[in-house]
Design goal:
The protein is α/β, with parallel strands linked by helices. The protein contains 11 helices and 11 strands. The protein has 2 domains: 87 residues, Orthogonal Bundle (Arc Repressor Mutant, subunit A); 185 residues, D-Maltodextrin-Binding Protein, domain 2 (3-Layer(aba) Sandwich), CATH 3.40.190.290. The strands form 3 sheets. Strands 3, 4, 5, 6, 9, 10 and 11 form a 7-stranded mixed beta sheet that branches.
Length: 325
């Protein structure tokens, strides 16, 4: 915007009795007003006395007068009518006072928000989780405790498999992950903390012969047809169950693949096969299903909370420091 164009626009705005808009257009060209100018102006406007305003601002009167004069030169109009007896706001000054208060209020708000973000008290978190975790008490408990401690953090929860969570963490698309990695796979670049070692449970139709057993070993399942997740969806659980079966001397026959843990339970309930699931899946309310504990020492799966090692955001550090119980 050229100066001549800004002046023409300002004159037109004045003709339309929009004095502040004229000042705004001119200030767009100059773009030199600072917060200190607004503070000085507000002090004089509220005190209507340069001496008292200077005392309020803890400064000498001459520099204050110079700041006000500089504002008037920048804006191209008088903000105060000055006489030996009194100081009064002009119409322009009255309009500016209202806007100046808004500017300082917004600046204070931005400063406070920034300080709170630095302390991890404001901001947002993108949290990934695997499909079985809504039925597990650990993640809901951690999130509830975090919300209680930092209520102004905006949380977004995204369901995704462990492998995709690891990629999203490393790419910065999510901040926190609740994942069940394979014991055989390291994830460089991630900080991981064990939050639960969850038992694995056998699930089948309530009329299945094995449902009559109070507990089972993985070896008891050698001749069964399984319902299970594809490995790319449930890497940690898939590898764990395959490892348990291998230790028991067999390779599971997978008759049906399902992409959701709750679907596996529902399919087991109608007799399409059996499966091994995290113990939290007992909370799925489905008619005709039976859960039985597995006695094998290795029949557990670990749950980790993870964040990218290079992510130094205070809000992430606060979440990672939350105790699991």
């Amino acid at each position: 915007m050229t100066l001549s164009f800004a002046v023409k626009c300002a004159r037109h705005a004045c003709y339309q009795s929009n004095i502040f808009f004229a000042l705004y257009l001119y200030a767009m060209h100059i773009n030199m007003l600072e917060l200190r100018h607004y503070r000085s102006f507000i002090a004089v406007a509220e005190e209507l006395h340069f001496g008292r305003a200077a005392q309020r601002l803890h400064m000498a009167q001459p520099p204050l007068s110079q700041q006000i004069q500089a504002m008037e030169r920048l804006l191209g109009g008088a903000l105060f009518n000055r006489t030996r007896r009194k100081v009064e706001l002009t119409e322009t000054g009255r309009l500016l006072l209202e806007e100046a208060r808004k500017v300082l209020a917004q600046a204070d708000k931005a400063e406070q928000l920034t300080l709170r973000a630095v302390r991890g008290e404001a901001g947002r978190l993108e949290i990934g989780f695997t499909g079985s975790l809504p039925f597990n008490t650990v993640m809901p408990t951690l999130i509830r405790r975090f919300r209680r401690a930092w209520p102004d953090i905006q949380l977004t929860l995204v369901e995704m498999p462990t492998a995709r969570q690891a990629e999203a963490l490393l790419d910065g698309r999510i901040d926190i992950g609740f994942l069940r990695p394979s014991v055989a796979v390291a994830i460089p670049g991630l900080d991981m903390r064990l939050v639960e070692r969850e038992r694995l449970t056998f699930v089948c139709n309530a009329e299945h012969p094995l449902a009559a057993c109070p507990s089972l070993s993985v070896a008891d399942l050698a001749k069964e047809e399984f319902i299970f997740l594809p490995r790319h969806i449930g890497t940690g659980l898939y590898d764990k169950v395959m490892g348990l079966a291998h230790a028991a001397g067999f390779v599971p026959t997978i008759a049906v693949e399902a992409h959701q843990m709750s679907t596996i339970v529902s399919m087991a309930a109608i007799g399409l096969g059996v499966s091994i699931v995290p113990d939290a899946m007992r909370r799925v309310q489905v008619d005709g299903v039976a859960f039985r504990p597995l006695v094998d020492a290795g029949a557990f799966i670990d749950l980790f909370v993870a964040a990218r090692s290079a992510n130094t955001a205070p809000v992430v550090a606060n979440f990672m420091a939350m105790p699991p119980d």
